[in-house]
Write a structure and sequence with these properties.
Radius of gyration: 27 Å
Number of domains: 4
Bound molecules: adenosine-5'-diphosphate, magnesium ion
Distance between the termini: 47 Å
Helix content: 55-70%
CATH class of the largest domain: Alpha Beta
Shape: globular
Strand content: 5-15%
Number of strands: 8
Strand order of the largest sheet: 5-6-7-4-8
Number of helices: 22
Length: about 450
């Protein structure tokens, strides 16, 4: 191992956490978690995979993204390559997945772990309900609780990290708890494909089909993954139809609605939309705060001041996974370093996350908010008029443009009716001074800023 490997290892850990957030736990475990760093030298990182199959898969589906992330972390990296580490191949005992649906008459498929394991933490109890997810939650509960098939399929969709997988696992837990003996299969669409391709390779598609068709509740996560994968789509469609025809419940999730699914056959899309389509909207502040409050309970020994939860809920808006990640990091830091949780500490520990979540504000948004706030017209703000009641808001807007965007002074000047950069500079200094002396103006600036960053 050469010297730069330890540093590369650190970067790789970070990249892996980004990837996990992007592609979900299941795909991550299937493809990424087993990759190792072989060497990192001369601007090239070499990763190794356990098999050629995984190597090719990574090459085709993930390499561009890995390269991109790596280049972002370390500018000196020009190439990332992947090899199959054949020495690593040994006889592997099939993973004993907890929720196996293997039956005696299909030993081959069963041995390859048909079912992805379920996260015990993802239950209905631990799911916090708000306006944005109440429909999806209610529908999921309904599926889990009634012995009948209320709607088929249940189609859950929503952005990354908003709780689709959580709800599916919750359904599985609940069904198993209420109705022992019911066959439940949960897996990602990616894994479905992987299994299907393996079945093709080992020429046991008959067993594969039989395996799925004896299921009472089938849940396929991230179904968008089968877009443009024609034979997998076909197989999925047949499985789906066979189950629905036999009045078995199917639940699918996707990062977009059926109508927005591209690269999936029309007849499949239309069929997917037949049941109940429940979307999960982005979280609002209230829900994020509620989620944090509930997750805090995992750390009885750490006390989180309310203002810290508020900071997180306000600033980490992209998805719940990141929100949780932020909380976990603070908790870990507090525990290991023996420090009390405070706003400063949180800001310190989460610097990178907070920065990444900073919304990109544009100059026109700033102008719109300022105009709104001071009850002016945009034309007035951009005009040459110099009366205080217009000039001051204009200076505030220029100041905010400097603070909140990465635009240069001349660029800002141009957007404000073609003013000179010295005018902008003057405005920035003026507002800086005024904020120190004039608490009303200072409060105004803070308020507008909060609106812009909400
Ligand atoms: P998705 O599958 O939509 O990408 P996940 O279900 O994996 O998102 O959720 C990401 C993380 O956020 C999980 O740890 C999950 O428990 C958590 N999470 C998401 N929504 C909620 C919620 N409403 N209440 C509690 N935890 C949530
Ligand atoms: Mg998911």
């Amino acid at each position: 191992m050469d010297e730069s490997v330890p540093q590369a290892a650190e970067i790789w850990e970070r990249i892996k956490s980004y990837l996990r957030a992007e592609i979900g736990d299941d795909a991550f475990e299937t493809w990424i978690s087993g990759l190792k760093i072989e060497t990192a030298e001369g601007g090239t990182v070499r990763l190794s995979a356990r098999t050629k199959f995984v190597r090719d898969w990574i090459q085709r589906h993930y390499m561009d993204r890995i390269h991109e992330l790596w280049a972002r972390e370390d500018k000196s990296i020009l190439a990332v390559e992947i090899v199959a580490d054949l020495s690593a191949i040994k006889i592997r005992v099939p993973m004993a997945a907890k929720d196996h649906v293997g039956t005696a008459d299909s030993p081959v498929v069963a041995d390859r772990a048909l079912q992805a394991s379920l996260d015990p933490r993802f239950t209905f109890d631990s799911f916090v309900v708000g306006k944005s997810n109440e429909l999806a939650y209610a529908a999921a509960r309904r599926v889990a609780e009634t012995g009948e098939v209320p709607f088929n399929p249940l189609f859950l969709h929503g952005g990354v990290g908003l709780g689709k997988t959580h709800l599916m696992h919750a359904i599985a837990h609940e069904v198993k708890r209420r109705r022992a003996g019911v066959k439940v299969v949960y897996m990602s669409a990616e894994k479905f494909m992987f299994q299907f391709i393996s079945a093709l390779r080992y020429k046991d598609t008959v067993a594969f089909k039989r395996q799925f068709r004896s299921v009472d509740l089938l849940m396929i996560d991230d179904v968008q993954f089968i877009a443009n994968k024609n034979s997998t789509q076909e197989e999925f469609f047949h499985t789906f139809n066979a189950l629905v025809d036999n009045r078995r419940q199917v639940v699918v999730s996707s990062d977009r609605s059926p109508t927005d699914l591209k690269g999936i056959e029309e007849r499949i899309i239309s069929r997917l939309g037949w049941g109940l389509v429940a979307d999960i909207h982005p979280t609002d502040f209230e829900l994020r705060f509620g989620i944090l409050q509930s997750k805090c309970e995992q750390y009885p020994d750490v006390s989180f001041p309310e203002e810290v939860l508020e900071l997180l809920a306000r600033r980490i808006t992209s998805n719940v996974r990141e929100l949780e990640g932020g909380l976990n990091r603070i908790a870990a830091y507090a525990t290991f370093m023996g420090r009390a949780v405070s706003r400063d500490m949180a800001q310190d520990v989460l610097q990178d996350v907070l920065r990444a979540n900073d919304r990109k504000v544009t100059i026109s948004e700033i102008q719109r908010q300022v105009v709104d706030y001071y009850n002016l017209r945009l034309s007035e703000l951009l005009s040459a008029r110099r009366s205080q009641n217009i000039a001051r808001p204009r200076q505030v807007a220029m100041y905010l443009a400097k603070q909140l965007t990465s635009r240069s002074l001349p660029e800002i000047g141009r957007k404000f009716g073609g003013r000179d950069h010295t005018t902008v500079m003057h405005a920035v200094r003026k507002v800086e001074d005024l904020r120190r002396m004039d608490s009303v103006l200072d409060e105004d600036v803070k308020r507008i800023r909060r609106i812009l960053e909400a």
